[in-house]
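Dear support,

I submitted the protein below through the web form. The confirmation email said the job was done, but the results page showed an empty box. After a refresh the structure appeared. I'm attaching both so you can tell me whether what I see now is the final result or a partial one.
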Amino acid sequence: MTVLLSARGLAWRAGARTILGPLDLDVLRGECLAVVGPNGAGKTTLLRCLTGLLEASGGEIAFDGRSLKSLSRRQIARRIAYVPQIRPARVPLKVAEIVLLGRYPHLSTLQLAPRKEDFAAVDEALRVVGIEELRGRPVDELSGGERQAVFIAAALAQEAELLVLDEPTLHLDARHQHDLAALLLRLKEGTDHTVVLATHDLNLASLLGDRLLALSAGKALATGTPAEILRPELLERLFRARFEIVRGGERPVTVLDLNA
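What the results page shows now:
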């Protein structure tokens, strides 16, 4: 697998305080890299730096061999789609209109209206995500899980090579977490996207991640397969809490040790 996105010596500081880094990272083409770690570990800061939304205080980021700094915002948006964890509480648009916004990076400066290929991309994104029946619904009438699916569809309509998701299951109840995890698993198995996601959900990270990055205080504690990272002793160092392995069913599961 070739490297799609790389960071060398990446750092981001707020005043004199270092929030992230220095950090070296490779994202391989076609993989899903799940970033895990406690609150304040720097997960969102990392994702925002990798998408160019935050300017790094130090180091270099390259996308497909080109410095991210050399790319315009439109060029980055054609290559990287970002779904943040925090969005406006009210969105006075219909589902299809939100998904169509994902086509903005592909519009020319002289283009007055979307083209047929833009509407075709919207139709395909709605189909892949499985929300075609919602296309005419106001977004404000949707459940949290449905809204999240809409924003993922908008990212897919962007037709970017890299999909970056920040806490995709945040604030969702158990059923909607399950539905969204199933959607992300379908996307992973049925498309050629490269995915980077940050999550507190270790089960989601285990399910989707080809590799996991354990982030602690802005630095990489470890990188490896889910089996290499989701071990009680490493998770104890990462979260400063006791974990145990529960065996049974198809695979062992690492969970918090509530008796510790």
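Response: this is the final, complete result; the empty box was a page-load delay. The chain has nine helices and twelve strands.
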